[in-house]
Amino acid sequence: MPTITTKDGVEIFYKDWGSGQPIVFSHGWPLSSDDWDAQMMYFVTRGYRVVAHDRRGHGRSAQVADGHDMDHYADDLAAVTAHLDLKNALHVGHSTGGGEVVHYIARHGESRVAKAAILSAVPPLMMQTAANPGGLPKSVFDDFQKQLAAGRSAFYRDIAAGPFYGYNRAGAKPSEAVIQNWWRQGMMGGAKAHYDGIVAFSQTDFTEDLKKINVPVLVMHGDDDQIVPYADSAPLSAKLLKKGILKTYKGFPHGMPTTHADTINADLLAFFRE
Question: Which part of the chain is the AB hydrolase-1 domain (predicted)?
């Protein structure tokens, strides 16, 4: 399997398919690069080089005990792009991966980056604070950690079968294959990485990162997102970005890159070609 080893000795797995302008995908918690199958298959057949890695502690990357924070996530992404010498890259991040992309660009600069897109993404800040009254209470994320520690297999099954894909909504038609694939990806990773990752995605404030970014960024979000509520995420991120473009999807769930891949892929392609 293709891997790189980071400066702090962590082995990171990645996929690198095709040729052409590179699109780099950053996945959500607690998944892996496999969650981008629908996008990678679509874009590799349209003349793009598609790259995706498994975040440290996730998927096929090393299940290390430490470094599960946005600084390390961004540095690991930078290590992959440098190793592959990717230039004029298009970065796409879903959920926690959206935060990873934003932090990577702000922390490592734009010399390798052409554009970015963040989907159902956690920025600017998920957790409720005095400065972010619309966020979710810390107790919500504390409860996530408790449920994970008590038995993540059942916890992951409930997330996938319920709010992640909107399968708990009236009239929804749950896909058992999609649910099992989410559960499979989650269980491939390490419990410690996922436990710490909850703090990373919920408590990191990306406000200053967003302000630093000069490249165009497409902010895509469903207004029925039950994981990262719409009102306190996408519209605020789009305003903070110098070249932010907000695209709102009526009724789409958090996992819209999977449930509505045709729509998402077409809109990404149009943005990349602008």
Answer: 22-253
Give the whole-angstrom CA distance, residue 50 versus residue 57. 22
The Cα 247–Cα 234 span in angstroms is: 9
Tokens describing residue 64: 């290390």
CATH no. for residue 220?
3.40.50.1820
**pLDDT tens digits along 162-208:** 999 999 999 999 999 999 999 999 999 999 999 999 999 999 999 99
Give me the active site residues, please: 95, 225, 254
C-alpha angle 23-28-34 in degrees, rounded to nearest 5: 65
Domain housing 240:
3-273
Q: Are 51 and 16 in contact (CB under 8 A)?
A: yes
Number of structural domains found in the chain: 1
Residue with tokens 């946005």: 70
Q: Cα separation of 234 and 139, whole Å?
A: 22
Distance CA 174, CA 230 (A): 22
Nearest to 76 by CA among 65, 61, 88: 61
Q: Alpha-carbon distance 71 to 92, whole Å?
A: 18
CB contact at 8 A, 116 and 218: yes
φ, ψ at 44 (rounded to 5°): -70, -25
Q: Percent of the chain beyond pLDDT 70? A: 100
- CA atoms of 50 and 115, how far apart (whole Å): 14
Looking at residue 125, the DSSP 8-state letter turns out to be: -
pTM of the full structure:
0.98
SS3 247: strand
Q: Residue 153's CB: how many other CB atoms inside 10 A?
A: 10
